[in-house]
Amino acid sequence: MNAAILKGRLTGVGTGPGDPELLTLKAVRAINEADVIAFFCKKGSNGNGRAIVEAHIRPGTLELPLVYPVTTEANKEEAEYRGPISDFFDRSAEEIAAYLDTGRNVAVLSEGDPLFYGSYMHLHVRLASRYRADVVAGVTAMSGCWSMTGLPLVQGDDILSVLPGTLPEEKLVERLKNTDGAVIMKVGRNLPKIRRALASVGKLSGALYVERGTMANGAAQRLEERDESPAPYFSIVLVPGWKSRPRGDRGADR
Questions:
Q1: 210, 189, 227, 209: which is closest to 71 by C-alpha?
Q2: For every residue of the chain, which 3-state class applies, written as one string?
C-alpha cells in the first residue's frame, strides 16, 4: 500500500468568534472525528478556541497545546518577534507532522476563520504540500460583532476595508480616507492611535467599539465614549459606510 495513504489528515477548524452556538455543523463533525486536537494558547491557558469547542471533544482524544513563545501583540517587524514566532510555527508543524505520519487525523482549532488572520494558516503553508489538508470555514470576529450589535456596515457599491490597528497612524489615515466602511482589528494598545486616525478623517462619531463580541461578557459602545485604557485582545472597531441608511437605524447605539 502507498505510504501516503497511511498518513493522517490535517484539518484547520474555524471555531467562530466566541459563542459556541456559532460553531458550524461541519466544525463539530471535524472535531468529533479527530484523533488529535491541537490548539494555540498562551502559557498557563488553554486558549479561547479550546473553550469554545470543549463540549464536542470526545473522551480520550489526544490534545496538543501549541504555546506561543511571545505575545501576538508584539511588533511583528521586530527581530525579537519574527525569529521566535517563525521557529515556533516550524516546531508546531513538525509536532503535528509526527502525528500525521502515524496515520492520525489532526484538527487544529482556529478562532474565527482559519485563513483570515488565523494562526492556523502558518501551519497550512508548511504542511499542505505533504499531507491532505482541509479547512473548515468559521464565522469571523467581524461578522460576529456586527451581527451582535445590529450594525449594518456596507451595502450596494460601498467599499469595505479590513485594517490592522498595528499599522502606522499615517497609513491608517490614508486607508480610512479611501474607504466607505472599515473593520479595524488588533486594537489592544493601539486604541488611542485608531481614535486619532478616525477623528482626522471625520469618521470617529459613527465608529463602534466592540470587545469580546458574541461572548457571554461581550460589550459594545461608541468609540468616542470609550476611555483610553488598552483594549483587551478580543476587541474590534466597526466603522459603518452606509451613509444613507434610514434614520431609524440604531445599531450603533446598542
A1: 189
A2: CCHHHHCCCEEEEECECCCHHHCCHHHHHHHHHCCEEEEEECCCCCCHHHHHHHHHCCCCCEEEEEECCCCCCCCCCCHHHHHHHHHHHHHHHHHHHHHHHCCCCEEEEECECCCCCCCHHHHHHHHCCCCCEEEECCCCHHHHHHHHHCCCCCCCCCCEEEEECCCCHHHHHHHHHCCCEEEEECCHHHHHHHHHHHHHCCCCCCCEEEECCCCCCCEEEEHHHCCCCCCCCCEEEEECCCCCCCCCCCHHHC
* Contact in structure between 96 and 39 (CB atoms under 8 Å): no
Q: φ and ψ at 159, to 5 degrees?
A: -100, 130
Give how many domains the chain has, as a whole number.
Answer: 2
Does residue 16 contact residue 213 with C-beta atoms inside 8 Å?
no
Domain check: are 19 and 128 in the same one? yes
pTM of the model: 0.88
pLDDT in tens, 141-196: 999 999 999 999 999 999 999 999 999 999 999 999 999 999 999 999 999 999 99
What is the per-residue pLDDT across 240-252, written as a single tens digit (0 to 9) for each?
Answer: 998 877 766 544 4
Judge whether 175 and 218 are in contact, CB under 8 Å.
no
Beta-carbon contacts of residue 161 (< 8 Å; ≥ 6 apart): 175, 176, 178, 179, 181, 182, 183
Residue 84, domain member (yes or no): yes
CATH label of the domain that carries residue 78: 3.40.1010.10
Query: Using an 8 Å Cβ cutoff, are 204 and 198 in contact?
Result: yes
